[in-house]
Specification:
The chain is mainly alpha-helical. It is 63% helix and 10% strand.
């Protein structure tokens, strides 16, 4: 990137849409990555729409409405759902698992090189002699790729959610919502993680000043962030706790994410589990003999899925905002 490049006044993206100054320059520098991402997102959206139509048609032609949700007890329903899952759920699992890589791609190949290349090449120091201020350069190098990150990840997230929804609604208990996939492969959390990892890569590139080093650090820090988010995910929204007498099973609704559970005494106090009763022929009688007559459970119902999704997205965006604030402070503190 030369000093002359900083003075390019503007350009044309396509007919009717103009980008000028630094905005055009950043687009020009990254257009191959941007266009590749947009093409991939569009292709996935079309494919997901086709798969959605196939799934909904199969539910109707196979008369699975009566079995919907996976809680049906008949052998016929179970067999029909297993057959449906083999055809439509299993092909969806790999794409959902691969979605975890999407934020890393934004962090490694879009976020990491942005400012690291400017600093590494010396352009960052040269800006002080141009009419473009350091903060304007930072805003352009951050804003344009960030906007593309939101657009591309948003399209992909919407496509995967559209594909996943009829499969999950039909499979129910046979395709739980709370495991790491599909949770991180659908919904707004995909966008939140993509934005966070992009900003993480940009910040590390600014601080470490080496492109390859920043990419490696983004990979390691991103993995640590994901592990931390997965650990706190159950606590991002208040769980429900219920107590029930005359049962030995957790009193949770179908599709609930069980967090913890245990036995209750006759006066509804939590008591320790009596492991010796599991080997007894009369399990209930053994529990009764030890004063246990009920069960308690803490869980997230299926209706909490979107609450947890938006809460996790909020955490990602808050961390991203903190990274932006840190980057601004770093630029002002280290002018060269």
């Amino acid at each position: 990137m030369s000093s002359g490049a900083l003075k390019i006044p503007g350009g044309r993206l396509h007919r009717g849409l103009h980008l000028r100054g630094l905005t055009w320059l950043v687009w020009r520098q990254n257009r191959t990555v941007f266009l590749t991402g947009l093409a991939a997102a569009t292709a996935l959206a079309v494919y997901a729409a086709v798969q959605h139509q196939h799934v909904t048609t199969a539910v109707t032609t196979r008369h699975l409405d009566a079995c919907r949700g996976g809680s049906a007890k008949s052998v016929t329903c179970v067999c029909d759902l297993l057959g449906f899952g083999t055809t439509y759920q299993l092909p969806l699992r790999r794409p959902l698992q691969a979605m975890l890589l999407l934020p890393f791609l934004f962090g490694l190949f879009l976020g990491g090189p942005q400012l690291a290349q400017v600093v590494e090449s010396g352009t960052y120091r040269m800006v002080s002699t141009q009419s473009v201020t350091r903060m304007r350069l930072f805003a352009a190098k951050l804003g344009v790729p960030l906007a593309m990150t939101v657009i591309i990840s948003g399209v992909i997230a919407a496509a995967m959610t559209w594909w996943w929804h009829p499969v999950a609604a039909t499979m129910g208990l046979l395709f739980t919502w709370y495991t790491w996939y599909p949770f991180y492969g659908i919904g707004p959390v995909v966008v939140g993680l993509s934005v966070l990892f992009h900003l993480l890569g940009t910040t590390l590139g600014l601080v470490l000043r080496r492109t390859v080093t920043a990419m490696g650090a983004t990979l390691a820090a991103g993995a640590a962030l994901f592990a931390a988010l997965e650990r706190v995910r159950p606590h991002l929204w208040p769980a429900r706790t219920v107590y029930a007498q005359h049962t030995t099973q957790p009193p949770t609704p179908d599709g609930a994410w069980l967090m913890s559970d245990g036995p209750l005494s006759a006066d509804s106090r939590r008591v320790g589990d009596v492991t010796g009763c599991y080997a007894q022929n009369d399990f209930r009688q053994c529990l009764h003999a030890h004063g246990i007559s009920g069960h308690w459970a803490t869980y997230h119902p299926a209706s909490h899925m979107w609450h947890l999704q938006w809460a996790a997205t909020g955490v990602c965006l808050a961390l991203g905002a903190a990274l932006v604030a840190f980057s601004v402070w770093w630029i002002r503190r280290h002018p060269a």
